[in-house]
């Protein structure tokens, strides 16, 4: 969705502020400043968090790419040693955070984005916020992306003491995304996902006719960078276990509409598994088939046909069970494919 297609009216710019990032609120001319090196002792409420997620909260406004660069270069240390992004912190860990130069200034969110956010909300209470993320909106800023859904959410909920992503969706994937309003709930959701008690279902259109008895895709996935430096997953024996269940297959034209459930949550899991199966997700420019994408473009498909349709989980702080209907632009493609 372009900014021009969002609700119109005010064309001025809103400034995003959230706890711990108030100094430059409203300052368009904030000069770059370099932070000092510091060591943070991990509090009990952060025990079990991934190191990369913890750093994202400590280095306010830093692009995620910068966080990974600091980790790869060894500038971040945990108890004096290098640590990987997925390291799980323990209470009392000493995390060295290097000097970081803030050259970008405050993040500014177009007011229309903040207004449109309310239409994304599918469920909200004192601890949870579940949204139906549109395709094209990244989960967070970084790598040339000025802001993402989390920045928009914080701008729309300035009264929230904190707001964090519990998991992520690819930029081109739409659907259910869970955010948490406190650390305890975030940890509980992370645990549910890690222990596979959370349910995450997706709807996808796969290129070609899938065998009707296909029920499981189980293949290890490893992450590497391609020639352009973009991270992608591929099937390989050195990867991590990944399992995708197919719970429904419907032939649509020459293609297959499928309902999938993730048992693991690897990067680009559905897209990489579908490619491995020989039936890539329709509209996928990274893992897909160019001839299939060209054919479906004639039916109006202009995006990745992958939608997170359902999320359900239970924690000591409450349960959620949320559905997000298939977006109109994808429903229209199916209607055209089904029309003789």
Which word captures the global form?
Answer: globular
Structural class: alpha+beta
CATH 4th-level superfamily of the largest domain: Pseudouridine synthase
Strand content: 25-35%
CATH architecture annotation of the largest domain? 2-Layer Sandwich
Average pLDDT figure: 85
Name of the top-level CATH class of the largest domain: Alpha Beta
Largest sheet: 10 strands, mixed
Structural Rg:
21 Å
**What is the assembly state of the chains in this entry?**
single chain
Query: In the CATH scheme, what's the topology name of the largest domain?
Result: Pseudouridine synthase
Task: Write the element-wise H/E pattern from the N-terminal end onward.
Answer: EEEHHEEEEHEEHEEHEEEEEEHHEEH
Give the total of domains.
Answer: 3
Please count the beta strands (DSSP E, at least 2 residues each).
Answer: 19
Uncertain segments of ≥5 residues (pLDDT<50)? 1-32
Helical segment count: 8
Distance between the termini: 30 Å
Q: Fraction of residues in helices? A: 10-25%
State the gist of this model.
This protein is α+β, with helices and mostly antiparallel strands and 340 residues long.
Characteristic key phrases:
single chain; 340 residues; alpha+beta; Structural Genomics Hypothetical 15.5 Kd Protein In mrcA-pckA Intergenic Region, Chain A; Pseudouridine synthase; 3 domains; 10-stranded mixed β-sheet; 3-stranded antiparallel β-sheet; 8 helices
């Amino acid at each position: 969705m372009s900014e021009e297609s969002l609700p119109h009216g005010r064309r001025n710019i809103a400034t995003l502020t959230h706890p711990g990032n108030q100094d430059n609120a409203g300052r368009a001319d904030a000069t770059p400043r370099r932070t000092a090196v510091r060591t943070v002792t991990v509090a009990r409420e952060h025990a079990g968090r991934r190191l990369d997620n913890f750093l994202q909260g400590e280095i306010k406004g830093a692009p995620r790419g910068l966080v990974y660069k600091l980790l790869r270069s060894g500038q971040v240390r945990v108890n004096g040693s290098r640590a990987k992004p997925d390291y799980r912190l323990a209470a009392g860990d000493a995390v060295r955070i290097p000097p970081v130069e803030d050259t970008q200034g405050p993040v500014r969110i177009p007011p229309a984005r903040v207004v449109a956010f309310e239409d994304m909300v599918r469920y909200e209470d004192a601890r949870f916020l579940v949204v139906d993320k549109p395709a094209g909106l990244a989960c967070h800023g970084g790598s040339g992306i000025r802001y993402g859904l989390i920045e928009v959410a914080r701008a729309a909920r300035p009264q929230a003491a904190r707001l964090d992503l519990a998991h992520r969706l690819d930029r081109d994937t739409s659907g259910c995304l869970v955010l948490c309003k406190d650390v305890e709930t975030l940890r509980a959701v992370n645990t549910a996902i890690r222990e596979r008690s959370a349910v995450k279902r997706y709807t996808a259109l796969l290129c070609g006719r899938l065998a009707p008895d296909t029920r499981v895709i189980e293949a290890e996935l490893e992450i590497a960078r391609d020639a352009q430096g973009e991270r992608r997953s591929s099937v390989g024996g050195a990867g991590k276990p990944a399992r995708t269940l197919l719970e429904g297959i419907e032939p649509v034209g020459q293609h297959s509409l499928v309902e999938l459930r993730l048992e693991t949550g690897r990067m680009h899991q559905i897209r990489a598994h579908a490619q491995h199966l020989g039936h890539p997700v329709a509209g996928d420019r990274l893992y897909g088939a160019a001839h299939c994408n060209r054919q479906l473009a004639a039916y109006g498909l202009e995006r990745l046909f992958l939608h997170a349709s359902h999320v359900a989980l239970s924690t000591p702080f409450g349960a959620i069970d949320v559905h997000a209907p298939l977006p109109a632009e994808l429903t229209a493609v199916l209607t055209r494919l089904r029309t003789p």
